[in-house]
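Appendix B, example 12.
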Amino acid sequence: MKNIINKARSYSAIFISAFISLLIPTIKASAQDAQPAPKPVKNTFESVWVIDDQTVMVPVKGTLEADIQHRFGSVQNGYKDLFGIYGVSNIRLGFYYAPVKNLYLGFGLAKEGMLWDGSAKYAILKQTKEKYPVSITYYGNIGYKTVADPSHTLFTYNTERLSFFNEIMIARKVNEKFSVQVAFSISHQNSVPAYYAQGDTSTYVFKKEKFNMIGMSILGRYKITRQTAIILDYDQPLTPWPTNNPHPNFAFGLEFNTSGHTFQLFAGNYSLLSPQLNSMYNANNPFKFTQTDGTKVSGGQYMIGFNITRLWNF
């Protein structure tokens, strides 16, 4: 009986050894086939903002962000109001959170029009060294003006207080110092101001495109030190309106970064702190402006501004 058991053990050992020897090449081949997932490029931009525009950046899951955005008055009055610093200003406070990977949700309140906004941003594609040459992100925003209007001078219905913004952003980190982004957007408003047709004061001009504005933007960042960068931002409305075409935005400044803060100091033409309202209603010309006496002066209607962002990770 012992001989039979010993023989059975010997045969079992031989069988197991033979099976393992056949399996090892397969395991090695599988290990060679399983390539590591490409890692996304880090820090295409240091902030979710470059001046007035969102970037493709979506912080990691569990990130909480607080923003302060400030725009002073136009510099065109010079020393009278200290180049707009003592002029009429606009301020926005914003808060954002990343509940899941690649998704950023936020809300904010701007002084102008007491505008509440809610936003969502989703990273569709992230640039990698091996596979994807660019990052692609979607951004959407809904605004609601809560300014008092008891006589319905501004809004006939409360739904006219709403405005919308949708944007696709495409960015590339060219090297460790330089990053660039281009974006295409559509803005929509639920109410359209009435303009009289020229020569006929009884006829209003309502054109479909005045409810919508297609636009594009391009922005860039160039690092001059480890924590300091030059930033540029340009926004161009593309939809022609019959009257009061909005002006483009040209902004430039400096960005300063720490591990949890980003501070941007700049001059630009946008002041409304809402992407859709800036796109549709920017009245500040970056290339020339008109004085109160009607004289056109070279230069532009620039405003000094700053953004401060603070991040916490949970």
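Confidence is low (pLDDT under 50) at residues 18-31. The radius of gyration is 28 Å.
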